[in-house]
Amino acid sequence: MNAPLVHSLEARYYTDPEIFAQEMSGLLARTWQLAGHVSQVRETGDYFAFEIAGESLFCIRGRDGEIRAFYNVCQHRAHQLVQGTGNTRVVVCPYHAWTYELTGQLRAGPNIKSVPGFDRDKICLTEVRCEDFNGFIFVNLDPDTVPMDEWFPGVRDEIRAYVPNIDALAPLEWVEIRENCNWKVSVENYSECYHCPINHQTFAEGVVKPETYDIQPDAGGGYVLRHTTECQALDQMSYPIDMSVPHAGDYQSWFLWPMVSFQCYPGNVLNTYHWRAHDVDHCTVWRGWYTEGGVESEVVRALAVQDRETTVEEDIHLVESVYRGLKSKGYKPGPLVLDPKCGVNSEHSIERLQQWMREAVDG
């Protein structure tokens, strides 16, 4: 007897504002999220502000060389402390000039010594869990979370094998893409290549061999989807690659639930996706492209342009159409295509992804 068909998620998981609010206070506040790159905080006192799950945060490098992350809020009267990027000897609140060490400890404040019983040693900025993951800074608002290597077993070393120069990399270019859809629609679209041969001609004919494409939700365990494929025939590649480097002929992607993906394009070109959810109907995707020291590269720059003008542009139209469809009264979730042999024309990765989505909402 055949097993019952597995159907896609109901539309409400994407379109219901209450579910989105639940994700913001729950899932997105309890998972590892990409904040930035170590190249943004090379020197003591370098900092940058960012937002996760509706919270304003900032990263800063201390005098001990450690990178720390804090909620971007003064412990006095709640004014935000920093904006954008910069460098500072100490963190000074613009409101009343309360001053904090780079470790977050209160250092001084106007007239605080005149307050009987005032103990500045008991006042510190609220720190957030922070990890350096192959040069990428991740944060997690859950103080009790487990390390990233437990969430994503083996991924740290796998990426290093495909990108042997990763410690020397810095961003060359960030491409910001606004999408009028729920963030999960965009993540789902990224997490299958069933649509690639039909919709992504340049990617499918000039970067990868679709017939070798596979996505494995179980390899290595954890909250990871691993995309694997071979590069296209060299005479059909849309950019040159040096096949003398290990894994130069491979494409590998590691999607880290819920909002980050590392990709190694053929030729050992590292690029990343990371998503930010603004509201139930809108998200932004950032595409990062990296070179050693962030130095100019005609090949990588051209590849970023090609990707933005083809795959990314094509995906915008796809995900926005899907989201309009999810709001239609005529939509009834259909069965997923779960080929026992897996492969490019199977949606077994979507089954796993939707399981995580459902668990985040329903427990």
DSSP helix fraction: 10-25%
- Summarize the biggest pleated sheet: 7 strands, antiparallel
Shape: globular
CATH architecture of the largest domain: Alpha-Beta Complex
Distance between the termini: 30 Å
- Report the uncertain regions: none
Number of domains: 2
Question: Looking across the biggest beta sheet, what order are the strands in?
Answer: 1-10-9-4-3-2-5
Order of helices and strands: HHEEEEEEEEEEHHEHHHEEEEEEHH
CATH superfamily of the largest domain: Naphthalene 1,2-dioxygenase Alpha Subunit, Chain A, domain 1
Q: Which CATH class of the largest domain is shown?
A: Alpha Beta
Number of H- or I-type helical stretches: 9
Tell me the number of strands.
17
CATH topology of the largest domain: Naphthalene 1,2-dioxygenase Alpha Subunit, Chain A, domain 1
- In terms of DSSP E residues, the strand content is 25-35%
Class by helix and strand content? alpha+beta
Average predicted local confidence, pLDDT: 95
* Radius of gyration computed on alpha carbons: 22 Å
Keywords:
about 375 residues; Rieske Iron-sulfur Protein; Naphthalene 1,2-dioxygenase Alpha Subunit, Chain A, domain 1; 7-stranded antiparallel β-sheet
List the helices and strands and how they pair.
Elements: H1 12-15, H2 17-25, E1 33-37, E2 46-52, E3 55-61, E4 67-71, E5 85-87, E6 91-92, E7 99-100, E8 106-108, E9 127-133, E10 136-140, H3 148-151, H4 155-162, E11 169-179, H5 183-190, H6 196-199, H7 201-206, E12 214-216, E13 224-230, E14 250-256, E15 260-265, E16 269-279, E17 282-292, H8 298-326, H9 348-362
Antiparallel strand pairs: 1-10, 2-3, 2-5, 3-4, 4-9, 6-7, 7-8, 9-10, 11-17, 12-13, 13-14, 14-15, 15-16, 16-17
